[in-house]
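Troubleshooting: if your tokenizer reports a length mismatch, compare your output against this known-good record of 306 residues.
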Amino acid sequence: MSSNSRLFVMIVAAHVLQIGTVADAWAQACCTGGLAVSPARLAPTEDVLVGLQTRAMGNLGQWNARGDWQPLPSGSRELSNQTDLVAAARLKDWQFSARLPWIETLRQTVRAGQAIGGGFGDVDAGIRYDFRLVRQGWQGLGVAAIVGLTVPTGRPVERAQAAQAVDATGTGAWQPRAGMAVEGLLGPWLTQVSLGITQPSTRQIADMAVRTGWQGAVGLAVARVWSRGISSAFSLGYLRAADTKVSGVAIADSGHDAYNVGVSLSTWLGDWRVGMLASGTPPLSGVGHNQPVTAGMTLTALRVWP
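Known-good structure output:
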């Protein structure tokens, strides 16, 4: 595989992994859903991939409606681990991908003690169409359209049965999405900008019809290939959601937004694409609203067939 091909697939892996981390961090049962660009992604020289990614994440606190960051109370902690089975296949300029997550959560408070639980999360599927593949130089920009659907196969928080809702693993809403990506390649550097929007479906909670507001996301990733096929990447993502509506009435100041940053390393081990990502939301006031502040580490291993 050429260095350009390796660069392309590394930035693909890093960027999709990082956007997925943003989405899943914001799709905790206590929140209102997330926006995933694509669960898996193939390079132009690849036809099929299957693999696993596992992510450990800790909750550092919460932004309130004013944007003030508040750390977790003394004696409290919240940890989660998500392991995804991912797969993707190519048909000419089309890519089809899917992800099946298993989620485990640990919560502890001084008053309620410690609870551990989990289960299968929301299944996700995506389709990508490349109008034009990226080539060297700014005149060779790549452009792609992306659509997808998150299916509410997990257990939403209102149906949780375990203490502290640690068995809640989903949002309880169908989440169709659409987006686009633009990519540019200059020497060993590749930059990707992605945009996306989703509108979760209405879900019934007791006698209330609850619908999370539309969610929009933008992501920027920059990657470079070094010697021996090792790649590094940096990403910055931002997500914003409008106010939630209950029985058709918008709840003031219920929307949320936050930034997410990530740094990753990737390489090849034979036919395996492996990577490591550190990501999180900055624990600073004024850069998020109504969102948990998180930090985590993700490990990925994907078997690729040309």
